[in-house]
Amino acid sequence: MDLDLDDIQAGALHERPSPYVGTYLLLRVNDRRDGRKLVRRLIPLLSPAGAGGAWLTVAFTYRGLEALGVPPESLAGFAPEFREGMAARAAILGDVGESGPENWEPPLGGPDVHIALATLAPDQASLDEAVAKARRAREEFPGVEVIWRQDCYQLPTGRTSFGFKDGIGQPAVEGLGEHPGETPIKAGEFILGYPDETGGQAPMPVPEVLGRNGTYVVFRKLHTRVAAYRRYLRDRAADRREEALLGAKMVGRWPSGAPLTLAPDGDDPSLGADPKRNNDFRYGDDLRGLKCPAGAHARRANPRDALDHEGAVDVRLHRMIRRGTSYGPPLPDGVLEDDGADRGIIFVFAGAHPRRQFEFVKTQWLNDGIFIGAPQESDPLVGRGGDFTVPRQPIRRRLRDLPPFVVTRGGEYCFAPSLSALRWIADLREMP
């Protein structure tokens, strides 16, 4: 399948540089004419997918497309969950209690978020230059206002705030080359206008130019309780070795990225650092979870072949492109008390089917345990808390009363149009 890479925004398919720094901006459109002029001014700054260096990605909420004057007949063709917005679907997603929209960081989830700009670069100088270009473009149009900013970065270790290597396990996309040990997934699972794994295509808005080569983007700010996570492991381990093992069992990988299925007894940094090996594995020979528990975070998010025996579950229909970035100061190694700083992950997902990709994985695999025979359990790292079972011989171990280690601070459903669609939006005129 030939992808029109010159028309697809870089952020949809582009691998991030490593290391990287970045900035997310949210904008409100107070004057649709200024908003459309800004869109036109940003188009030359958007590197097409496959380009290197710093790049800018622009996406819109449903309210943002309304604010820019996209006609109702076009808006009606977008996915229902995108039209509703993430705050309206919070209860479905499990964003309740302290993770509920009433506790989200303003303006996330509110009516004022219209445009999202993401800028990532390999170094601070490149980022500053790219952000400056975007700022100069916006400053010419007073009818558009910046209402939120979040700086982000990759930790020097390449790991998340919980201490585990990030960015492993991205799906291979047909037309973008192959990944070791994985059959590429149809491009239509991620980009509108192409065949997907069902043989059909995701529904698109009209006219075709508005939808084709675009993708839906899930944006979530997740606060991580790193000190609570460390204390939980420390309190339940006899020594540092057991502490590391319990952490790996919860995640499904060792801190280096080495998967438990290939390194069940101890971390293997050389394996974790090898992109040709660290994602080339299956769970079919470990259905009991003696190497990697069925409820581990990585296995829940991508069960691979572990559900093949179920017959009715096609894991390939639920894959997603993930773009996680860290924000806030890292908690120093060994610190077990919370310092009050806001730190965590900006989670970004790109795909053509938000409901059966992000929402299915979040609700059926991360929040629930029915599919692994443990309906009372959820993901031990990003779930609602509760229990977590570690299979072992002769007697399994059950970790009880896990607190929630991740709290949702806000989120948005967005749409990242193609460059052609951005020109179409920029050229919109007022209805007579």
Explain how this protein is built.
- There is one protein chain.
- The protein has 432 residues and is of the alpha+beta class.
- It has one domain.
- Strands 5, 6, 7, 8 and 11 form a five-stranded antiparallel sheet that branches. Strands 2-3-1-4 form a four-stranded antiparallel sheet. A two-stranded antiparallel sheet has the order 9-10.
- Helix 2 packs antiparallel against helix 14.
- The longest helix has 16 residues.
- The mean pLDDT is 92.
Residue ranges: pLDDT <50 for 5 or more in a row?
none
Mean pLDDT: 92
What does the main sheet amount to? 5 strands, antiparallel
How many domain modules? 1
Number of helices: 14
What best-fitting shape do the alpha-carbon axes yield? globular
Beta-strand residue fraction: 15-25%
Order of helices and strands: HEHEHHHHEHEHEHHHHEEEHEEEH
- Sheet/helix structural class: alpha+beta
Q: Specify Rg, calculated over alpha carbons.
A: 21 Å
- Number of DSSP E strands: 11
**Beginning-to-end CA distance, first to last residue:** 41 Å
Helix content: 10-25%
Protein name: Dyp-type peroxidase family
GO molecular function, one term: metal ion binding
Cofactor: heme b
Family: Belongs to the DyP-type peroxidase family.
